[in-house]
Amino acid sequence: MGLNDSITSERLHIGFFGLCNAGKSSVVNAVTGQELAVVSDRSGTTTDPVKKAMELLPLGPVEIIDTPGLDDEGELGEKRIKKAKQILALTDIAVLVVDSTKGLSPLDNELIKTFEEKALPYVLVMNKCDLLSEVPQSNDTHTIWVSAQTGYNVNALKDMIGALAKSNSAPKYIVSDLLNAGDVVVMVIPIDESAPKGRIILPQQMTLRDLLDKGCTAICCKDTELKSTLECLKEPPAMVITDSQVFGKVARIVPNGVTLTSFSILMARYKGELDTLVKGAKALESLKDGDRVLISEGCTHHRQCNDIGTVKIPGWIKNFTNKDIVFEFTSGGDFPEDLDKYALIVHCGGCMLNEKEMKRRIKAANISSIPMVNYGVAIAHMNGILKRSLEPFEDVLSSLK
User: Fold this and answer.
1) Cβ contact 328:292 at 8 Å
2) In the list 74, 114, 173, 265, which could disulfide-bond 376, CB 3.0-4.6 Å?
3) 315 — phi, psi (to 5°)?
4) b/e map 195-222, b = 16+ CB within 10 Å
5) DSSP string covering 349-374
6) Is the pLDDT of residue 5 over 70?
7) What's the predicted TM-score (pTM) here?
8) pLDDT digits (tens, 9 = 90+) for 379-399
9) How far apart are CA 357 and CA 380, in angstroms?
10) Cβ distance 238 to 185 under 8 Å?
């Protein structure tokens, strides 16, 4: 997979913000070297967030997001502003573009305060400096004077964004840090009516690549061939990783001495909130008749007749609780602002959401004191194998004691 083939959720998300006609779109075009955004002297040209996945040197694979002006007017303007602020939830680095001939406005200062409260790395771009009689000098490491029109300091701006990205990044692994080179790992991948034709789903792709990068031997099989696959091995594998929907079946086949977990649990760890989601599993035991449970997925896909999110998980929860539960569903970018009516949130692994957005959703649930669990953790708990599936993660297990 080349840089330009990186999935959106794994790209660095760079959001461009500012007032109408501050030159956001012009700066975006100057930074990317493309006519990515529509540029006009007319205020409010950018009506909705514009996203573009691309490779940007020296940063590598990025997602560029141009947002509507924060001072857009009228009812439609309010909706555009709301959209722009929502982008903050998935922004890794913010770029605030200001018209240097006018200076910082109260809205600009308010946004800077928001960046700092969220500990969001940001760059303050004083655009249109070619219209000034003299370009000011600044010792502020956040600020740079730029002209999107002439290209002045555009490369320096890219270097500044790159430095921020480097200082705020750390190596991340899905599972390879738990294994040694040469280990044999069996990946259990069911192929049923919900499996995408001709390919495997993203968490399986990401895990496979992580294992190969480590120097592990990865063996892929369907759940129906797992028993015979294990019998073919001279030694037990170091780990078995399974799709969550066959967790119970796989657990009965894999010997107790072999480490067992799921792709969904690995994704929860990869996004950085596994312990919180594990604690949320306990709420499955206290659900009552009439309780509302939100089942949320980060992607949008064609629903199959036996879809895991809308069919299988609701059925398993009803069987586990023996209660009359009311289920609601969201997918893609939709996630309710008001969570108070829910007794529990069951979320997918979040492979199509970047870490920032996944953590925002978990934080929103915590603020509302609503327990949240993900598919893999919930299914393991309902099958009575949660502790076993968490054996590789000693820190999470200790938090449950």
Assistant:
1) yes
2) 265
3) -65, -45
4) beeeebbbbbebbbebbeebebebbebe
5) --TTS-HHHHHHHHHHHHHTT--EEE
6) no
7) 0.75
8) 999 999 999 999 888 777 666
9) 24
10) yes
